[in-house]
Inverse folding.
């Protein structure tokens, strides 16, 4: 899964980079590190959806280092700021961990986040790497969800197991993981319902699905990925916190980054939830699901 070239990533993050261009201007101005500088930097980060809590954490550490190392000008602070942002998004388990056979990836997220599309792109990449992939259409509540997954399955050369519309999602998952084991598949990716994250019944259903997977394939799922629409800003942060409480997330997938001017939400989510961003989606093409690399992301977000 090759990483985008920096040029392509910068193009995809144009809106976010434009919104944060003032940060780079602060560096070039070589301003004194007075209260006015720190206040402006704080306002810029909050406006870019870094969030108050994450902004305070980053700037608190930055001001302490500036004091200890006797920094005088804004270029020194901004250079360290960029390194700190990359460090904030670097977490253990950044790479996709496919353990066991079949390795089960449980994918969760609200409707409209790009969940099914992400599954299709990931399946295509895994199939292209020589893996035998089976998709499980456990979103039995949304009309045409299974049909959409079957279309992606055809594109990705992946088998699909589905149940009847309105049926028990956990029963579909049981059939799916059983089929993946019987057919000697390498990877089984489970699509789930995406009704609003505040619905208690949705979270209980996800817990039930996890129990079924763990019972049939001990040690699975090896990955539980939450797909978030980055353009929804602070609402995405709320979703991440709630899903993490219910489903023990191992990673995040941020979609639609090419459509948001508030790229700081990626930093806020990684900080608040404490699990790594594993992939980002920057377009509709089957190849436009990219392995997340914090330093490359920061370079693309701030570099002029």
């Amino acid at each position: 899964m090759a990483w985008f070239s920096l040029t392509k990533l910068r193009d995809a993050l144009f809106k976010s980079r434009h919104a944060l261009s003032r940060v780079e201007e602060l560096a070039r101005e070589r301003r004194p590190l007075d209260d006015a500088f720190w206040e402006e930097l704080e306002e810029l980060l909050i406006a870019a959806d870094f969030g108050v809590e994450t902004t305070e954490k980053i700037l608190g550490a930055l001001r302490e280092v500036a004091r200890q190392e006797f920094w005088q000008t804004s270029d020194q602070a901004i250079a360290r700021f960029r390194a700190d942002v990359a460090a904030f998004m670097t977490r253990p388990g950044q790479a996709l961990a496919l353990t066991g056979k079949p390795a089960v990836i449980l994918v969760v997220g609200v409707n409209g986040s790009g969940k099914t599309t992400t599954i299709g792109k990931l399946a295509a990449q895994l199939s292209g790497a020589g893996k035998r992939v089976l998709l499980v259409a456990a979103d039995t509540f949304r009309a045409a969800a299974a049909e959409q997954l079957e279309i992606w399955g055809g594109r990705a050369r992946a088998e699909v197991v589905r149940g009847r519309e309105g049926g028990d999602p956990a029963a579909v998952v049981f059939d799916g993981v059983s089929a993946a084991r019987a057919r000697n598949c390498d990877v089984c990716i489970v699509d789930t319902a995406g009704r609003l994250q505040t619905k208690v019944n949705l979270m209980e259903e996800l817990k039930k699905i996890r129990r079924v997977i763990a019972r049939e394939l001990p040690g699975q799922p090896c990955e539980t990925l939450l797909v978030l629409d980055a353009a929804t800003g602070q609402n995405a942060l709320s979703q991440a916190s709630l899903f993490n409480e219910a489903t023990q997330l191992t990673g995040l997938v941020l979609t639609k980054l090419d459509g948001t001017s508030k790229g700081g939400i990626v930093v806020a989510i990684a900080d608040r939830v404490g699990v790594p961003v594993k992939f980002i989606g920057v377009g509709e093409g089957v190849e436009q699901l990219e392995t997340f690399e914090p330093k490359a992301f920061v370079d693309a977000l701030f570099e002029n």
Remarks:
- Residues 257 and 297 are 11 Å apart (CA to CA).
- The radius of gyration is 21 Å.
- The first helix runs from residue 6 to 12.
- The mean pLDDT is 87.
